[in-house]
Write a structure and sequence with these properties.
This protein is α/β, with parallel strands linked by helices. The chain contains 15 helices and 17 strands.
Length: 506
C-alpha cells in the first residue's frame, strides 16, 4: 500500500540546469539605454524572510542566495544605475548550520537517481557536514536583510538574534532588531515581503497551532500560531514608515494563498487503494463505531447528527479517503471511556473521521501515509486502522482560518502601498496563475507541479532559481511602471530548476 502512496514521486521528468546569464532583446552597451527612473537603486535594501533570503530545498545555501529575487533585481538594476548589493552568503552549498560545532539545521534536499534505472528516488537530505558556524558573525553591512523563519513582528523584536541563528549571523548587536539594522543602511530604495510565516507555519504544521486573532500580545504566541491581523497591521505600518525615511521609493509584496504551493497540492487526499474484500473487512472493524457509538453520542446530545455523519468511516473498493484525526471535532474520548471503552481505543476514536475533498494532505505525509504504525502488526496501516495524525492534514476549517488572516494581511499591504505611493506586487494572483494553468515563457511553462513544474524547490514551499527569477521579473515590471524605470527583466528559462544529482560541490 505504501508503494502506491509514493506514486507522486515516481516517473518524474526533470529539467536541466542551464546558464544563469540573462538574455536581452536589445544591446545593453549603450550609455543611458536603461534607467532606474525615479527609483534611486544605488542602495537597494530588501527586507523579509526566507523568500527574500533565497531559501530553497529546505535550507539556505550559496546557490540559492545567489539566485534570490532581490539579488536578481540588483543585477538587473546594475545595467542602469543601480549600486552594489551584498548578501550574507553561507559557507557552503550544503545549507546546514553549526552551533559550536554541533549541527542544528539540516542540509538541503537533493533528488538522487536510481543508479540502475536513472529514475528519481524521491527527495533526500544531502549527506555531509556543513561549515556555516552561526556563532561566527558575518561582516556586513548586507543589503539582503531576509531572515528565514521571521514573522512580521519578529522584525521589530529586540534580541531576535538570540532566537534565530540566521539573524544571529548578521545582527549588529544582540539587542538589535532586523528593522533597525535595515534602516541603519539608509536605503535609497527598498523591498518588503513579510507576513508569509505569520500563517504558513500554522498551515504547514497541519493547523497544529492557535489562531491568535484577538490576542494583541505576540510575545504569548506559539511557533505555529496565526498572527492577529491587527498586530500585523501595526508592525507592518511601522516597517513601511521606517524604510521610507530617506528612500526614493519602495515595493510592497503581498501574501500568496497556501493552496498555490505544492506542499499542499502534491499528495492526493484520496489515496488509500483497497480491494472489495479488504474494504469489507475494514468496514466490519468500524461497524460498532458507526452503528452504535455515534448514535449513542447523538442521542446523548454530545454531538450533532451532522457531526456524526462527518465521523462515519466507510471504505469501498477502489481509492479511498484516509482516516484522520481532527482537533476541531468534539473530543469524545472521556465520554467513550465512561461507557466502558478502553482508553487506547477511546483515544483513537475521540477525534476520528474520514478525510474529504475539503481537506489538504501535506507533502510530508507521503512518508507515513500507508505505512505500518507498528511494523509487527500488518493491520496498523496509517490512514486505515490508524488515523493520519492532525499535523499531516490541513482541514477545511483550518484553511478558512489561514485564508481569513491572509486576506486581512493583504488588505493592509495594498492599503499602505496606495497611501504611501509605493509600488505593489500582487504575488497572490501571480502564484495563483502559476498554479492554475501555468505561466508561459520562451522555453516552456512554469507550473506548481512538484519537481517537474520548474517553479518550486524540493521543500514544496520555496521557489527554484527559475521561480525566484519569475518573482524578480514581477517586481521589476512594477518598479518600471511606478517609477518610470526601464530596468531589464530576465529570461526565466535561463535560470535553473530541479535536477537529478547524487553529487554536490561544497
Amino acid at each position: 500500500m505504501k508503494k502506491t502512496i509514493y506514486i507522486v514521486l515516481g516517473g518524474l521528468l526533470t529539467l536541466g540546469f542551464v546558464s544563469c546569464e540573462p538574455e536581452f532583446d536589445n544591446p545593453v552597451d549603450e550609455p543611458g539605454f536603461y534607467t532606474t527612473g525615479d527609483a534611486d537603486m544605488s542602495n537597494f535594501v530588501a527586507v523579509g524572510n526566507s523568500l527574500t533570503a533565497g531559501f530553497a530545498d529546505g535550507a539556505l545555501y550559496i546557490t540559492g542566495q545567489e539566485n534570490s529575487y532581490p539579488n536578481i533585481i540588483a543585477q538587473q538594476a546594475a545595467f542602469a544605475d543601480g549600486g552594489e548589493f551584498t548578501q550574507p552568503l553561507m559557507a557552503d552549498n550544503l545549507g546546514g548550520l553549526l552551533l559550536n560545532g554541533e549541527q542544528v539545521a539540516q542540509n538541503r534536499f537533493v533528488l538522487p537517481a536510481d543508479p540502475a534505472t536513472g529514475e528519481p528516488l524521491g527527495p533526500v537530505v544531502l549527506d555531509g557536514t556543513p561549515t556555516t558556524e552561526v556563532t561566527t558573525s558575518e561582516t556586513g553591512p548586507f543589503n539582503n536583510m531576509g531572515v528565514p523563519g521571521a514573522k512580521s513582528f519578529h522584525l521589530v523584536t529586540p534580541g531576535y538574534s538570540t532566537l534565530n541563528p540566521y539573524y544571529g549571523r548578521i545582527a549588529t548587536s544582540s539587542s538589535a532588531t532586523v528593522l533597525a539594522d535595515a534602516v541603519s543602511l539608509n536605503p535609497s530604495f527598498f523591498a518588503l515581503w513579510i507576513g508569509n510565516n505569520d500563517i504558513l507555519s500554522y498551515a504547514t504544521s497541519g493547523g497544529i497551532g492557535v489562531d491568535q486573532t484577538g490576542n494583541l500580545d505576540p510575545s504569548t504566541y506559539g511557533n505555529n500560531d496565526i498572527t492577529d491581523p491587527n498586530v500585523f497591521a501595526s508592525v507592518y505600518n511601522d516597517q513601511v514608515n521606517a524604510l521610507m525615511a530617506g528612500a526614493s521609493g519602495g515595493v510592497l509584496i503581498n501574501i500568496p494563498d497556501v493552496t498555490s504551493i505544492p506542499f499542499f497540492t502534491t499528495v492526493p487526499v484520496q489515496s488509500i487503494p483497497l480491494d472489495a474484500a479488504t474494504a469489507a473487512a475494514v468496514n466490519a472493524q468500524f461497524a460498532l463505531y458507526n452503528n452504535q457509538v455515534l448514535p449513542l453520542l447523538v442521542g446523548a446530545g454530545v454531538i450533532s447528527p451532522e457531526e456524526a455523519a462527518l465521523r462515519e468511516i466507510n471504505f469501498t473498493a477502489g481509492v479511498n479517503f484516509p482516516t484522520i484525526t481532527d482537533d476541531d471535532l468534539t473530543d469524545v474520548t472521556n465520554i467513550l471511556i465512561s461507557q466502558g471503552i478502553d482508553a487506547e481505543t477511546a483515544a483513537l476514536l475521540g477525534q476520528l473521521r474520514q478525510a474529504n475533498n475539503d481537506d489538504l494532505v501535506v507533502l510530508t505525509a507521503s512518508s507515513v501515509l500507508g505505512a505500518l504504525a507498528d511494523p509487527s502488526n500488518p493491520l496498523s496501516v496509517i490512514g486505515v486502522a490508524v488515523p493520519l495524525q492532525d499535523q499531516f492534514v490541513l482541514t477545511g476549517t483550518e484553511q478558512d482560518r489561514v485564508s481569513t488572516a491572509t486576506q486581512a494581511y493583504n488588505t493592509t499591504i495594498v492599503t499602505l502601498a496606495t497611501a504611501n505611493d509605493l509600488a505593489f506586487v500582487d504575488a497572490r494572483s501571480a502564484l495563483a496563475q502559476v498554479a492554475n494553468g501555468g505561466v508561459a515563457y520562451d522555453a516552456g511553462l512554469l507550473t506548481n507541479e512538484f519537481v517537474t513544474g520548474g517553479a518550486f524547490s524540493l521543500d514544496g514551499v520555496h521557489p527554484t532559481p527559475r521561480g525566484y527569477a519569475y518573482t524578480a521579473n514581477l517586481i521589476i515590471e512594477e518598479i518600471n511602471s511606478k517609477y518610470n524605470a526601464t530596468i531589464p527583466t530576465v529570461n526565466i528559462g535561463n535560470y535553473g530548476t530541479i535536477t537529478l544529482t547524487n553529487n554536490v560541490s561544497n
